[in-house]
Specification:
The protein has about 625 residues and is α+β, with helices and mostly antiparallel strands. It is built from ten helices and 33 strands.
Length: about 625
């Protein structure tokens, strides 16, 4: 049966009601890539990332055919958009039990199909098991689709499938790619377009690091991604997706699927909830004028391994970001007018320039060039490091990672991975990595937790990252590592051996201030099974009670804490309780005053941390 016309007419009013109240707060008035970035922040927050092996069971909640061949009571038959015949009986059907790996013909079983090919992101989590774009499809069609893009096919047809979808040479208007594409039936072109646009929003910050079209040989280069974080796809490909989105509006099936995935994964496809946002983001008319250069580039702070750059914005109104060049090589991109460049070498000089870029990806001339020299040493750690390792019974697995680098750290290039042993080949290999994302402030920790955990002292709501992927399924025998751009930063256990840390919790000793790519058990304290006390917090013993160059008064305090001395140089002020819980944080707190209000604090004893110095005080 075809989509119900009435349900399509009612889509606009019905869809908006699906998201929980407040879910899209902060989007009002935004358009273009500013809206896209805000949506990224919303749908990336506190996701529950499940294992790839969990998906077939979840398909019984997200992908049952209640819309074509079966009614609302269907509890077994999956909807396969690659083989569904909207106007008649399907040639074959599957249940979630019919999962197979390969197939020589249609109708023998289904695969978990990545609408964005997994080669794009090297099969890493959380992308690898994201239900919003990993769907059940016929195994044979999935195999033949390979990693070809979706598209419009021409008369050179290589395969035609039972529902008339096909693999043919590309005829995407104005697109230079002429190799093969998979063209779905019209009934599901909008569904696929919205999956791909979801991917472009959800993984915005990671898109430049994924495998994308280099235009070395555009006629055969299969990826429609163009390496940009904002636009995401080649302009001609975006035009096709927008056309599919309009021609095949949001259906009741998509609405139901979006709601079911939200219950499982805790995030939504914003273009199913608000279809008008597709045009609001991607329908743009860039000008042909390069933007003005940013001004006044300078270094506001440097250490042995980093420098903090800042500049005055370009005066051009269509600027969407800035490219940072280190010794003439592009090293970072930001939407802000400041950035931390880290992983530098101590006692080394670097040259930096910045260029603005606009909606059409035209670049400005260089800003002024500056030379920054890193210091010989500092008191900070050179990188992030693991401070707690929980390997408890069952799925009770967690890692806590701390930032003591002296600056905010962008997590987009960090990942966690685990080494496995193949007894058949007597060899070791790494499982699928879990890619971190977002930013972590200096002197803060975050926890990566298996969402199937049942730890008594830590829950899913407490963790910043939740994954049931390979990285959080270690059993104590495996080597676990934190990496930066695939280079080992810190490690638990030894490579190429069977380790002996099953059912134990390892806590880093407070004397350890640097990561160690070679595991040393002497750096750790060992605790019993499922021990997780103070997981996710800086303990009072982590803090140095020192500092007499600045004085605080009165103590006890009532309404305000006052400071005397060289307080104007303090970069960060924090108030913590004695469990290590952060209660207050402020950048440059004494730039225009000499006090911090403690009026809202309950009576008790607290720690005031000013950069690397900490003071104990009593609140009356």
């Amino acid at each position: 049966m075809k989509k119900n016309l009435l349900s399509i007419i009612l889509i606009t009013s019905f869809v908006s009601a699906q998201a929980p109240a407040g879910y899209y707060d902060g989007t009002t008035g935004l358009t273009g890539y500013a809206l896209k970035s805000k949506l990224h922040d919303i749908i990336s927050e506190k996701n529950v990332n499940w294992h790839y092996g969990d998906l077939p069971n979840f398909y019984n909640q997200t992908d049952l055919d209640k819309y074509y061949d079966h009614g609302p009571g269907n509890t077994t038959i999956l909807l396969d958009i690659y083989s569904e015949i909207p106007g008649g009986a399907d040639a074959y059907e599957y249940t979630s039990a019919n999962l197979i790996s390969t197939s020589g013909a249609e109708g023998l079983g289904f695969n978990r199909e990545h609408a964005v090919p997994q080669s794009t992101f090297n099969s890493d989590y959380p992308m690898y098991s994201d239900l919003h774009f990993v769907i059940p499809t016929d195994a044979r069609i999935n195999q033949l689709r390979n990693n070809y893009p979706y598209g419009v096919g021409n008369s050179t047809v290589h395969y035609t499938f039972t529902n008339s979808s096909k693999i043919a040479n590309s005829a995407i208007p104005n697109y230079v790619y002429t190799n093969r594409v998979y063209e779905p039936v019209n009934e599901f072109k909008g569904d696929i377009a919205r999956m791909l646009l979801y991917f472009a929003v959800r993984y915005e910050g990671k898109l430049p690091s994924f495998n994308y079209s280099t235009n070395i040989n555009p006629a055969i280069d299969r990826s429609p991604l163009d390496g940009t974080a904002e636009r995401a796809f080649d302009p001609a490909y975006i035009s096709m997706l927008l056309q599919w989105h309009v021609q095949d509006p949001v259906s009741q099936r998509e609405i139901d699927r979006n709601n079911a995935i939200y219950a499982i994964q805790r995030n939504r496809n914003p273009f199913i909830d608000n279809p008008q946002w597709v045009n609001a983001i991607w329908v743009q008319t860039p000008d042909a004028v390069a933007p003005q250069a940013p001004l006044n580039l300078n270094s506001t702070q440097s250490g042995a391994y980093y420098t903090n750059l800042a500049w005055s914005p370009s005066t051009s109104s269509d600027v969407i970001g800035y490219n940072i060049y280190q010794n003439g090589t592009l090293v970072a991109t930001t939407k802000s007018t400041s950035i931390v460049i880290d992983h530098l070498v101590h006692s080394t000089s670097y040259s930096f320039t910045v260029r603005a870029y606009d909606q059409g990806y035209l670049q400005s001339p260089d800003s002024n060039a500056i030379t920054v020299s890193t210091t010989a040493a500092d008191t900070n750690s050179k990188d992030l490091f693991i401070v707690k390792y929980i390997e408890g019974t069952g799925n009770n697995k967690a890692l806590e990672i701390v930032n003591k680098t002296g600056h905010e750290v962008d997590l987009n290039n960090y990942s966690i991975r685990v080494q496995y042993y193949n007894s058949t080949s007597d060899s070791y290999y790494f499982g699928n990595s879990f890619e971190l994302e977002g930013k972590v402030p200096n002197n803060e920790t975050f926890v990566v937790l298996n969402p199937k955990s049942a730890l008594s002292c830590y829950t899913n709501n407490d963790a910043r990252f939740l994954t049931a992927g390979d990285a959080l399924t270690f059993s104590g025998t495996q080597y676990v590592e934190l990496t930066y751009k695939s280079t080992t930063v810190d490690a638990i256990g030894s490579k190429f051996v069977s380790n002996s840390y099953g059912d134990v919790s390892l806590y880093r000793k407070n004397t350890v201030t640097q990561p160690n790519a070679t595991f040393n058990i002497g750096e750790w304290d060992s605790y019993g099974v499922n021990y997780c006390q103070n997981l996710g917090t800086l303990s009072a013993s982590d803090i140095i009670l020192a500092g007499n160059d600045i004085k605080i008064y009165p103590n006890p305090a009532y309404d305000n804490i006052f400071v005397s001395g060289k307080a104007e140089n303090v970069k960060l002020a924090q108030i913590l309780d004695f469990s290590g819980k952060l209660i207050y944080s402020e950048q440059n707190p004494f730039k225009n005053r000499n006090n911090i209000s403690v009026l809202d604090l309950s009576s008790g004893v607290y720690l005031l941390k000013l950069d690397d110095k900490t003071y104990q005080f009593i609140k009356k």
